[in-house]
Write a structure and sequence with these properties.
Elements: H1 2-30, E1 36-41, E2 44-45, E3 49-52, E4 55-57, H2 59-71, E5 74-79, H3 85-90, E6 96-97, H4 105-108, E7 111-113, E8 118-119, E9 122-127, E10 143-147, H5 151-163, E11 166-170, H6 173-181, E12 187-191, H7 192-201, E13 206-209, E14 217-218, E15 221-223, H8 228-244, H9 246-255
Parallel strand pairs: 1-5, 1-6, 10-11, 10-12
Antiparallel strand pairs: 2-3, 3-4, 6-15, 7-15, 8-14, 9-12, 9-13
Helix pairs in contact: 2-8, 2-9
The structure holds glutamine.
Length: about 260
């Protein structure tokens, strides 16, 4: 009889412990509220993200801050070369990426994207004095500068043979812009809003030519299958910012004339 009582006691203790464990787990899963997430950004990419006196600014920075505030989570911004951002997500060094990152099927193998938040698209860019190049057909024997890990780089590699050009690679956009400004390369491929902004804000002797090469749209990324709850919160926050007009305000801050 005593043995049974002891066993029953032990069993109920175990049950209580198990219930506690479950409870904790559920609480942990239930919330992104108050959590701190590491967010990868490419700070050489105005007007989406850049650094002024040690502070980060730009459309992406304001957007992710506003989403975090709306959804009650915290963020830590982690600046890095664009090409390092997806590897850092894979390595668990980042939870989120917002970096003027285009939504592509190839990237969807590795990350989950939010709803699109900006229409970009690639364009050819040449020196302002160049009257010779206006389309891909004019690139035979030319040198095309691209930035590692970008959709511009992929586009260049996929078209180099067909159009007979050579590809040179850079780690960040400003170096790539300089190369064409200095005459080191004939053309560069960049996201239209980014190069237009750079040309309007600086004395870079560059111009865009031809039609947009594709219809790239930007999305916010989390590691595939790992952060569904966070992704839902990001989409919810994004939708609420669009609704409230805050999304438009952020865009106007950086894009209005
Ligand atoms: N939108 C381009 C891409 O996703 C470039 C992004 C960037 O250079 N930050 O590849």
């Amino acid at each position: 009889m005593k043995k049974w009582t002891l066993l029953a006691l032990l069993l109920s203790v175990l049950l209580v412990l198990a219930a506690c464990g479950e409870g904790e787990e559920a609480a942990g899963e239930a919330g992104i509220e108050g959590e701190v997430y590491k967010v990868g950004i490419d700070t050489t990419y105005p007007p989406f993200e850049y650094e002024v006196d040690g502070e980060y600014e730009g459309i992406d920075v304001d957007l992710i801050r506003a989403i975090a505030e709306n959804q009650g989570f915290e963020i830590e911004l982690e600046p890095m070369d664009f090409g390092g951002i997806i590897p850092a997500l894979q390595a668990g060094q980042l939870d989120v990426a917002i970096a003027g990152m285009s939504i592509t099927d190839e990237r969807k193998e590795i990350v989950d994207f939010s709803e699109p938040y900006f229409d970009a698209g690639l364009t050819l860019v040449v020196h302002e004095d160049n009257e010779e190049i206006t389309s891909l057909e004019d690139l035979e024997g030319k040198t095309v500068a691209v930035k590692n890990g970008t959709t511009g780089a992929t586009f260049a590699m996929e078209n180099a043979d067909e159009y007979g050009f050579e590809v040179v690679r850079f780690e960040d956009s400003p170096s790539m812009f300089q190369e064409v400004a200095n005459g080191g390369a004939d053309v560069l491929i960049e996201d239209y809003p980014v190069i237009s902004y750079a040309i309007s804000q600086s004395d870079l002797p560059l111009k865009t030519v031809g039609e947009r090469l594709n219809g790239d749209q930007y999305g916010i990324a989390v590691l595939k299958g790992e952060n569904q709850e966070l992704l839902e919160a990001i989409n919810e926050g994004l939708a609420e910012l669009r609704e409230s007009g805050e999304y438009d305000e952020i865009l106007n801050t950086y894009l209005a004339e």
